[in-house]
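Example record

One chain of 127 residues, shown exactly as stored in the release files.
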Amino acid sequence: MDILASRVLLRPADYHRSVTFYRDTIGLAIAREYSGGTVFYAGQSLIELAAHGTPAPGSPPFPGALWLQVRDLYATQSELADRGVTICREARQEPWGLHEMHVADPDGVTLIFVQVPEDHPLRRDTR
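Predicted structure tokens for this chain:
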């Protein structure tokens, strides 16, 4: 399996407050915005704040996740399952167009494996 790109995914309790913090207080540049979130440049990495999937009021905060882009998600799922890795959520296409699968590391950190379809905006050159 080839990892093509990665980012840290956060689901803050207050999305707008966190965008203001990362953008204005910390001073990170925006790499990309979409209807459900904002992705910031963070050196050689990216930090994504997602407005979707936020924890319910009173529940513990989302501990974060690693977003790992692969060439073929379904082949990756088979490869990981063959290695004995438990697939927490099977590969499927999300409403935002990406194909995603979830795996947990030994400490419970979610690894979100992602395949970007050919027709998805992430594949378009915006220059």
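Notes: Residues 3-123 form a domain with the 2,3-Dihydroxybiphenyl 1,2-Dioxygenase; domain 1 fold (CATH 3.10.180.10).
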